């Protein structure tokens, strides 16, 4: 690990003012992804601002009947909250499908959204990776790509976003709240939060330097049947090959998004319109623009079948 | 056969020697590579409670909680397996919750209460989970065992607290103290020897007692 200086922030305003104008600075909370990457010298901040004491660990009702989840609420606390389990079951299900009990106890809501890809070529510093080292190339394209992305990818990067939580947040139309050093705040719909890789896969979100996530807001509950189905190489503690988060209504309408397929949770509203016609039509529309490799073409069929299983579960 | 004290080499002594060599190598490398952009880092003070005792340390910011326990407090019961949060050998209990101590900076634990395998019980006065692991042979080589036991103790607490898991049928209902629940929740602790079924037997016995 490279040397870094460290300080503790006492409030969100304190944290962003400490980060303002500094290069190579990172906020740290749970640290479960950042420290892993720092050990491998993939992340090399020279200064860490510890935001774990900034008090953002509450889940509160909003005025319009939703919930405001503080950025520091742990994955365990969020999954176990009775309001989440009752009204946003897809989110609770997605959270407990991810990582291990130990990691969920430390991992935070804000950090989960910002976790980096688990693409093996991103992790291996001997390999070319445009995300880790701009303009160095992509060893994943033409490499071992069965785990990697099929849609939303580019000629520069085929990495996937690893989060389960974010897929459920996308289906629930969550809004990411942030604070800037000048005191301004932003409310960013999660649909607009992530950037597709294009030619610059090292830019992953719309966050500005020194901008900090303070909360994630959920709109008021939409009812329906909440399902998160995850397909992976082993039954527990593994990243998704394909996952489907869905909220399905009794009349056959609904919403769904997929994990494991793209650089961000993949949701196409036009595909949801086709849900009453069945999984095949909806999945084909969802993946219309897919550009799979030979190694991960199987994910197209797997996504359709996973969606079919979700629809069957909703009917049962 | 040589019986002289001078020739007695303990496994621990060899390991410490290896650690010292690594430490020297890592101290030298930044200087030799002459990376002028690296910040000058002053040690940071840390005061926390470990196994009921108040402890104070001055630490390099890079020291993980795992290394603080093992190398600075000589609590070597907690083990370093992968050092990347994948194996669970480093599991300790912080403020009542199990975490991977390898993926946590020591300086972020100011004021925290840490319990390691040494704090759960002693050979003379074992924690019920430690006793159950002995009774059911919940280990072979024993390397993952401290992490397994810290996790197992926490898993029963998590089920009692009603925290749902991936195998919970109805997440709005009470969570059952079942084998499936325990198995799923222990997936962050890897055992290369494959003692899983005996670990589950040990956990089931303790769960039966507390239920």
Largest interface: A-B, 38 and 45 residues
Task: Quote the distance from N terminus to C terminus of chain B.
Answer: 55 Å
Count of individual beta strands of chain A: 11
Oligomer designation: heterodimer
Number of E-state strands of chain B: 5
- What are the segments of chain A in which pLDDT stays under 50 over at least 5 consecutive residues? none
- Under CATH, the homologous superfamily of the domain at 225-315 in chain A reads CO dehydrogenase flavoprotein, C-terminal domain
In percent, how much strand structure appears in the residues of chain A?
15-25%
Helicity range of chain A = 25-40%
Q: Any guess at the CATH architecture of the largest domain in chain B?
A: Orthogonal Bundle
- One letter per element, helices H and strands E, the order of chain A comes to EHEHEEEHHHHHHHEEEEEEHHH
Structural class call of chain B reads: alpha+beta
Uncertain segments of chain B of ≥5 residues (pLDDT<50)?
Answer: 1-7, 17-34
Overall mean confidence score, pLDDT of chain B: 88
Give the CATH architecture of the domain at 225-315 in chain A. 2-Layer Sandwich
**Helix count of chain A?**
12
* CATH fold assignment of the domain at 225-315 in chain A: Enolase-like, domain 1
Organism (chain A): Henriciella algicola
GO molecular function (chain A): FAD binding; oxidoreductase activity
Domain FAD-binding PCMH-type (chain A): 1-223
Protein name (chain A): Xanthine dehydrogenase family protein subunit M
